[in-house]
């Protein structure tokens, strides 16, 4: 670049605008034009900044909506799972009660067969067996102090 004694003013970063004096027009006369270009650049940058703020707020709003939706779906999934678990648990209780009833019927029939023999030597046993039948009967569930810690379906003591 060769010096020619004329001033040149560049405005902008990526595609700078160039204002330069000529033999007939001095840089001082171009100040309003320079200021106008600077003002245009500032206006454009303010618009870009505002647009970015709007986009940022919109992105945050959408992220919040997505977060809320994920939480809502997770809650729905949790409730569905809980409903299924509860339903299965109710069915297991039903199933176990039916099996317990079946076993109870067998025990009752056995008890009645022993009782029908009219053997007085079995009187104490029959009283004991009758209490155990009442305890095991899923329709009565009479308490038994000794067997209160027994799982009725497995006929095993519950672990403490």
Short characterization:
The chain has 160 residues and is mainly alpha-helical. It is built from two helices and four strands; from the N terminus they run E-E-H-H-E-E.
Strand content: 5-15%
Oligomer: single chain
Secondary-structure element string: EEHHEE
Number of domains: 1
DSSP strand tally:
4
Radius of gyration based on Cα positions: 46 Å
Main β sheet profile: 2 strands, antiparallel
Name the structural class. mainly alpha
Would you identify the regions where 5 or more consecutive residues have pLDDT less than 50?
A: none
Report the average pLDDT across residues. Answer: 90
Q: Report the end-to-end length measured between terminal Cα atoms.
A: 95 Å
Shape: rod-shaped
Could you give the order of strands across the largest sheet?
A: 1-2
Q: Percent of residues in helical segments?
A: 55-70%
Number of helices: 2
Topology summary:
Blueprint: E1 8-11, E2 17-20, H1 31-115, H2 123-136, E3 150-151, E4 156-157
Antiparallel strand pairs: 1-2, 3-4
Summary tags:
single chain, 160 residues, mainly alpha, two-stranded antiparallel sheet, two-stranded antiparallel ribbon
Structure description:
This protein has 160 residues and is mainly α. The protein has one domain (8-157). Helix content is 62%, strand content 8%. It has helices spanning 31-115, 123-136, and strands at residues 8-11, 17-20, 150-151, 156-157. The strands form two sheets. The protein has a two-stranded antiparallel ribbon with strand order 1-2. Strands 3-4 form a two-stranded antiparallel sheet. A hairpin with a 4-residue loop joins β3 (150-151) and β4. α1 (31-115) packs antiparallel against α2 (123-136). The chain is rod-shaped. The model has no long low-confidence stretch (mean pLDDT 90).
């Amino acid at each position: 670049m060769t010096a020619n004694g004329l001033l040149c003013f560049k405005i902008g970063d990526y595609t700078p605008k160039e204002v330069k004096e000529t033999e007939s027009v001095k840089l001082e006369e171009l100040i309003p034009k320079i200021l106008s270009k600077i003002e245009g650049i500032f206006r454009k940058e303010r618009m870009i900044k505002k647009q970015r703020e709007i986009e940022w707020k919109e992105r945050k709003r959408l992220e919040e909506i997505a977060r809320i939706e994920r939480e809502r779906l997770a809650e729905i999934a949790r409730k569905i799972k809980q409903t299924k678990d509860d339903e299965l648990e109710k069915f297991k209780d039903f199933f176990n009660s039916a099996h317990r009833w079946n076993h109870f019927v067998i025990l009752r029939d056995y008890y009645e067969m022993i009782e029908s023999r009219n053997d007085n030597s079995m009187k104490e046993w029959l009283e004991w067996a009758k209490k155990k039948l009442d305890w095991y009967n899923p329709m009565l569930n009479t308490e038994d102090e000794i067997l209160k810690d027994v799982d009725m379906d497995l006929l095993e003591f519950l672990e403490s």
